[in-house]
Specification:
globular; alpha/beta; 8-stranded mixed β-sheet; about 450 residues; 4-stranded mixed β-sheet; Rossmann fold
């Protein structure tokens, strides 16, 4: 018995025992992946427990049947999902709880869109696709056009934004780094809190002509000066925070609170957030819990589509089963960006087509028919040819340009000269401004 077989096998056991699962049937997968079942139809002395142990092996705990006294309380948990599944030719429904130590933020219901200011999350499955570079270019473009921007580096395990914007110097006047960064905020706030007057210690300012970008880096000057403390801090930054009432605050909740505090600290036109690449726990918060528009970067390679299928299929099944209205609102904030794209539109079509297949499988609604056989128009099922910033498969793009392979605006400021970046980033910038609902000053 393997993980992917265990749930279906349990459902088959129940069906064969005359207990076809219903919504009042609860299946719980514990932190090790083992399965337990609760159903008031299971009587003392039933052979369900022994069958589970025989068939599921290591995927059945010592006591695999949930007592009725506990079942009632579990059925009230907010994390419960209602699952629909086809098993042995039968369409069944049941309730499901997935217990986790890590990965819990991937089960969070998506937050409604946040505005005033709008938030843009820059995400990717792999590093090296120009995600952080695109964020830096957009931030600079907004700044030189008079917009107030806050950039936040949540890629805490591979910091980048701070080093792109905030030069270090032994001369205090030229050192743009703040004393602290996101890692410090998460560590210190969980212990003694961060006072309002201390917030400025986490924000560095990067100048662009008459404009500027406020930057909250992953780490600040103190960690740069004491690099031996980084790993130790990081291990504590990514922990749930216990509140005085005994409740817990996930990493995603802590980050959301942090951003709220910084955006109330100053009036911004846009918040640009660099997310951790991949499917790590700290990636889930920016994608689901910040109420942001999501820019998902990738190159035209099979691993890009496969990786996003892992992410989107999980969100579509897990989140939609518990919060369909939240999922419906979230999916309309997904935007794919082709990185290192070819100049010819015809050569970008393959990426767009592959993204359409992903969206069709996991984001768009299936076509349905009424009793007369007529098509029921779906709320969200764009055609392959449909275009626009609110059509996820109509991929944005950043053109491949060797000048941006070694992006270092601190060492080479021409990387953020408008006349230089407008070529490769023209389409991306145009759509980003439209998404932010902002107008250029010139």
């Amino acid at each position: 018995m393997k993980y992917h077989e265990s749930l279906r096998s349990l459902l088959s056991i129940l069906i064969e025992s005359g207990l076809t699962p219903e919504l009042s049937t609860l299946i719980v997968r514990d932190v090790k992946g083992r399965l337990m079942v609760g159903d008031k139809r299971i009587k003392k002395g039933d052979e369900i427990a022994s069958k589970m142990k025989d068939v599921l092996g290591a995927y059945a705990p010592e006591s695999p049947v949930i007592a009725n006294s506990i079942l009632s309380a579990l059925m009230k948990e907010s994390s419960i999902a209602r699952i629909e599944k086809d098993v042995d030719g039968k369409r069944i429904f049941f309730s499901y709880i997935d217990r986790r130590i890590v990965g819990a933020d991937w089960l969070s219901a998506p937050q409604k869109e946040r505005k005033n200011p709008k938030r843009l999350v820059f995400g990717s499955l792999k590093g090296g696709v120009g995600r952080s570079t695109a964020l830096a270019v957009l931030a600079a473009d907004l700044a030189v056009n008079g917009k107030r921007v806050l950039a936040i580096d949540l890629d805490v395990e591979a910091p980048g934004i701070g080093y792109m914007f905030l030069p270090a110097s032994k001369d205090v006047e030229n050192d743009r780094r703040p004393n602290f960064g996101v890692v410090d905020y998460l560590v210190e706030n969980s212990l003694d809190g961060i006072r309002e007057e201390e917030l400025y210690d986490f924000v560095g300012v990067s100048r662009f002509g008459t404009g500027s970008v406020d930057v909250v880096p992953a780490v600040g000057r103190t960690t740069d000066d004491h690099p031996e403390m980084m790993i130790s801090k990081l291990s504590r930054a990514l922990l749930e925070d216990s509140t005085g009432s005994g409740a817990t605050s996930s990493v995603a909740m802590q980050i959301d609170e942090m951003i709220n505090r910084f955006t109330s600290y100053a009036r911004y036109d846009a918040v640009l957030i660099d997310a951790r690449a991949g499917l790590a726990e700290i990636t889930a918060g920016p994608l689901l819990s910040l109420g942001a528009e999501l820019l998902l970067f990738g190159v035209a390679q099979p691993q890009t589509y496969r990786g996003y299928s892992f992410m989107l299929s999980h969100i579509a099944k897990s989140i939609n089963s518990r919060s369909p209205s939240d999922f419906a609102e979230w999916r309309e904030r997904v935007h794919f960006v082709q990185a290192k794209a070819p100049s010819a539109n015809s050569k970008r079509e393959a990426f767009r087509d592959s993204v359409y297949e992903l969206c069709s499988d996991y984001l768009y609604e299936n076509e349905a028919f009424d009793d007369n056989g007529d098509v029921i128009v779906s709320d969200f099922n764009p055609s392959p040819s449909e275009e626009g910033i609110h059509t996820p498969h109509d991929a944005w793009y950043v053109l491949n340009n060797p000048d941006y392979e070694a992006f270092d605006p601190v060492g080479d400021s021409t990387h953020l000269d408008e006349e230089v970046y407008r070529g490769p980033f023209g389409d991306f910038l145009s759509r980003a401004w439209q998404l932010l609902e902002l107008e250029r000053n010139n």
